[in-house]
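Appendix B, record 7
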Amino acid sequence: MVLTTQDLSEYIGQAHSLYHQLLLLVVPRRTTKYELIYASAREMGCDVVNINLELSRQLIELTHRQRKLQVGQIFEGIVEHSTVQFEPFGRLAFIDNIEILFEPSLEIHVLNLLQKVSRGRVVVSTWTGKVIDNSVIYAQPGHPEYKRYIVQDFFALSADETSRGA
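Structure tokens (predicted):
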């Protein structure tokens, strides 16, 4: 299925009614699919925030322990700062390059963090991985960053299929 900016806009409208207003754009690796998030954000007058860049800028001066303790709060601040008001969807944020969140030393439950920031705003995020059997996957089994989460109460759109948790 080839997603368009119109398709993404429709999913954003539907995500607005979910408890976790989260929409993951899942791709196997950096492809033209990423261009979709940037085109959609431009149409809605939003910027796409590079989480790897912004978060690493703020974590670099912290000790290892401070990073683990503060990463969630810093991430929430970055997303809050990038949130815009867009009618008819309300509050909206676009984020990209979230790979830093999977760094094992940060000890983050990535999906929980994304869901937390998507309460009260629609968050559209890229996710390098796949959707298989109603699960969103990051990395390969055995890799230290490997994660597998059930798609439930958020959208996960992939190049191969569209999934929405119940």
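Remarks on this record: The first strand starts at residue 22 and ends at 27. Strands lie at 22-27, 48-50, 84-86, 90-96, 122-128, 130-132, 135-138, 147-150, 155-158, 162-164.
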